[in-house]
Structures are given as structure tokens and as C-alpha cells.
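@channel anyone free to eyeball this complex?
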Amino acid sequence: MQASSLQNCNVMNGDGNATEGRSSAFVVSARKRKLQQITRTAGESTLFLIAAFVAVIVLFIFYFVARDAVPFFEIRGFREFFTDTRWYPADEPPVFGALSIIYGSLMVTVGSALIAIPMGVAAAICLSDVLPFSVRQYVKPVIEMLAAIPSVAFGFFALVIFAPMLQNHGGSILMWSWWIMATPLILLMIVVGAELVSSRIEDDRRRKVAQRVLLVVMGALALLILILVGFRLRSIEIMTGTNALNVSIILSFMALPTIVSVAEDALQAVGRDLREGSYALGATRAETIIKTILPAASSGILAGVILGIMRALGETMVVWMASGNSAHIPEPWYNYLDSVRTLTATIAGDMGEADQVTGSARFHVLFAMGLLLLVISFVSNFISERIVVRQRKILSGQ
Amino acid sequence: MKLFRKIFLGAAVFGLMASADASAAANKLVLDGSTTVGPIAKAFAAHFTKTTGVPVTVSESGSGNGAKSLINKTCDIADMSRPMKDNEVAAARSKGVTPVEHVVALDGLAIIVHPSNRVNSLSRAQIRGIYMGRYTNWSQVGGPNAPIVIIQRESNSGTQDSFKELVMGKDNPISKRAETQASNGAIKSRVASTPNAVGFVGLGFVDNSIKALLVDGVDPDARTVKNGTYPLHRALFMYTNGQPSGVVKQFIDLPKTPEGKRIISETGFVNYY
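replying in thread with the prediction:
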């Protein structure tokens, strides 16, 4: 870019000075060319150095974490760490079973993903294809602002406001959120279901009657389910507000801006031509979104989802403050109303006591946890990269 | 280029500041350690700065961290709510630090519950049973029919160590179900907002938002802690590197002055001297 504009400049100069019989219009003077070359080499090598530096940082982190993690496995072996659920690092003799902590990390990550992914993708679709531009312009920055709130503020909210709220009104909160989330979903399912079943009937009049009957029957059934489950949920008493559910909800809020922002960019990148092509073929807006735009943007959406999940997995402050930090696998295993302990919170919480001088296994076990987190994020990044590449290949028709 | 020079200069100044030994600066005191001793240390610091003009920094990162800071010479005084462990003393010696113990005040470990809880008194054996997970319902210890939410401190807390020593004993691990909070204040606010919770804090943290239980029938207060009838009592310490001198000595001697005694009772702890 720079070089070509320089050349253009010279061309003009050359044209102007042609009568004076100086060098050809298209040849830059040797000195200038040399200068250009030096600047280019210097620029390229600076950029390369910076890029290499970033890569080297990642490698160094990996190396140093691994270097301090390996001694733990040398001292205690793999079995205890991965299969024991007892975490008593300060006792005599200490027990370093991290299974329940690994499970806690997975539990809150899955929980937050279950909330954040549907909400985030739906919000991205709404932003990119439903809302008019004038509204989107203001809504997107507001959503992205969520990412600017420091995690300790989220943690404080979770611990001081949300946890007591869950304890005092947990049942009704669960009931209302069930109704709010399930009602539109069930309505959609009923309408689509009735349509599908009745479409087999050939006779026009009979089909309409069947449709109505089906709607009424299924509607009544759904209402019954909604009410029964709602009251069942309301009768639940939440013993402790600092639990996996609390953390999952807060973490999903923290992952949302990433997912929405990246997914919306991916949906926008699909472009007008595909959308208009779809409309031209007679597709409705819903069909266009579901059958054309979503598949075309799927790799970008997936990238956003992975980024969001990584944020939830790596988050420390919120889980340290609001997960309750009890190192056990909840009973039953899917009980989100029990408190859990995560890898990140354990590293943060136990770092204080764990010095090289006060028992080396206790120090190195935290690095083992850090290494585990690193490996998990590397593997999931790698997998998502593979999926993105494959998706691109499929879409480009190879 | 100018910008580069500025950045370089900034980095150099920052590096110098960071590398300067905290204890080398004579006109500044750095305290680190126990969150239990924290309120005393902070009140002392305010008083000390007002009377002598020496700035005092107080960090609260737990007794274990305090010991670590003293060993690494990043603080002048380590606040600790438990005596230094043998391996900490050994680590200090190996780094050329001689920890010297000073008792600041006495403290009782209050067992606290929500004010609405019917239970008023527990024996030490009952508390141990609760924290071991043997009793899981308040009805088993004379309370309402509700599950018990156990709250403990994290492992670098001196209060946690004192609790283990005074209540649990060596071979009784605390239940895996126990929730973990990072400070006395966090435990208090969790118990104050959770009707079925039980926790333990230093005597100085007891107020109207929670209810302190009688232990073995004895009320936790200044008198019972001082005369030793309240079973869960302990001394609070400050550790210095070698015998204190100069401003450090002035600070360490505060608990012996009338003003220091007033501050200690005002923060809810018990005078040792």
C-alpha cells in the first residue's frame, strides 16, 4: 500500500519533470528504493517479533506451570488426584483428591453454558436479523457493556444479594423462571406439533377440525405440566444460596456478551446476497434464518460459544465468592442447589498457605490444577478449530 | 522516541520501587497477615500515624500469608491468629529471619448462628459432631427441623487452625460438605443471611446481626476469655524479624499503653497486658 502510493507519487513527479530529462517515470531512485527496503524489513521484523513474543509467552506459561505441576505427580502419583473426592490439603496426613473439584468446575461450566448458549444465540439472531438497525445500534453496545463489569462486582452481587434471595424466595424464583422460559417454548412446540400431525390429513375441513382439537388437547396438557412442575419447583427449599445454580447464572451473564457479540458479527458476515437469495426462493424470514443464515454462520457462532464457555471455566472471583467452596460431589450428582468448589477457586483460595516452604505437595498440587485447566482449554480450542475448519469445507462445497 | 523514553523511565522507577526492601525504609511500617488481627492492626495504624506521622500499611491476607511475608521480608510485622508453625520457623531461619513472638491481645472463638435459630448453647462435642458431618439436622442438637449449613474458613486462615485445634482435634476432619469463606467478615455476612448456617469468627466480629452461642454453657465475652473459663480462647500475635527497635518497637508496644488497651477493647478483643 505504502510502496504503491509512493510510486504513484513518483509517477506524477516524473511526468512533471519529464522535460528535464531525468530518470524514467516508473523507476524510483536507488536511494529511495533502498530506504523503502530497509523500512519494509524493519517493519516486518518488528511485527514478527511481536507475534513471536505472544506465542513464546504462551509456551512459557505452559512450561512454567508444567514444571511446577510435574513434582506433584512425582510425589503423589496420578491416582489420588483424579479418583479421590477428599480434599484435605492442610491435614496431617494430607489428602489431595481433586475429583470433586474437577467435577465442580465442569458442573458450573455446563450449567452456565446451558443458560448462556441459547440466550446468547437467540439474542444474536434478534440483533442481526429481527431488530431494525436504529435499535441494534444502541442495544449491542449495552450488551457488550456487561463484559466491562469487573468480576468482583458480579461476585459481590452473587454473594450479598443473589444468595440470600435464593434462600428466602428460591422456590418462587425457580417457579417463575420455569414459567417464563417454558411457556413460549411449549407454545411453539404445540403449534408446530399440531401443524405437523394434521398435515397428513388430506381433507381440508377435517384437517382444520383435527388441528383445533389437537391444539386444545395439547394446550390443556401443557398447561397441566406447566402448573404441576411450577408448584413442584415452588415447594423446593434452597438450603444455601451460595451454590452451583447461583454461580452458573452469574457466569452465564458474564459469558453472554462474548457469545452475543461474536455470534452477531458472524451472522452479519453472512451478507445480504444469501438472505435475499433465500427470500427470492420464497422462504419466510424464519426459514431464512434457520435454514440459510444459521448454517452459514455456524462456525463463527461456535467460536463465540467456545470463547464464552472458556470465560466461564476460567472465571475465579465469582466462583470463589459465591459457589460455597465445599469440595464434594453434590448428591444427587445433578443437584445444582448444592455448593461446589472449582479448580480456579481452589487455586486462588489455597495459594496463600501453599508456599514451597510449607509442604511441597501442597504447593505443586495447585500447579497441577492450573495445568489441568490449561489442557482443558487447549483441547477445547483445538476441537473447536477443527470443527470450524470442517464446517468451512462443507459450506464451500468441498 | 519521547514516548519510549517516558515508558522506559516509568518502568525503571517502578522497578526501583518494587525492589526496595520494605523494612529498609525506616519511616514506613508494613503489616500483613491475619484477618482476625486486622481490625486491631488497622486501628493501631490509624492511631500510630496520627501520633507519630509514620505511615502504616496493613494488609489482611491470612495468618499463613503473614508468616510468608515476614519470611520473604516483604513486611515488618506479621499479624497472626495462631503461633508460628515449626516448619515456618525453620523456613524463616533458612532465609536469615528470626521470628520473635509478641502477644497483642486475647480472643475468643465465637460459634455463631442466625439470630432466628432456637439453639442457644452447644457443647464442644456437639460442635465437633456438626463440623464432622455426624449431625446434619438442627433437631439433633435441640434446634428446629432444618438441615445444618456448615461454614468454615479457607486453609490459610489462623482462625481455621485455631478452630481445628480447639474443637476438632487431630483425627477428625471437617466434613466435605462444609462451605468455605475467605474472611471473618464473609462468614459473618453468610451466617447473618442464612437461617440454617453455623460458623465461627473472632470475638471482635460478634454483633447484633448474628447470635453467638454459649459453648459448654459459658458465654463468650471479655471476662470469660480473660479468666480462661470460655473454652475456645486463644492469643493473637504479632511477629517481628529479630527483637524490634525504633518505630517497630514503638508499634509493638502499643498494646501495653492505655491508649492501645482502649483500642483493643473498642475493637471487641480482650487485653492481654
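from a first look: The radius of gyration of chain A is 29 Å.
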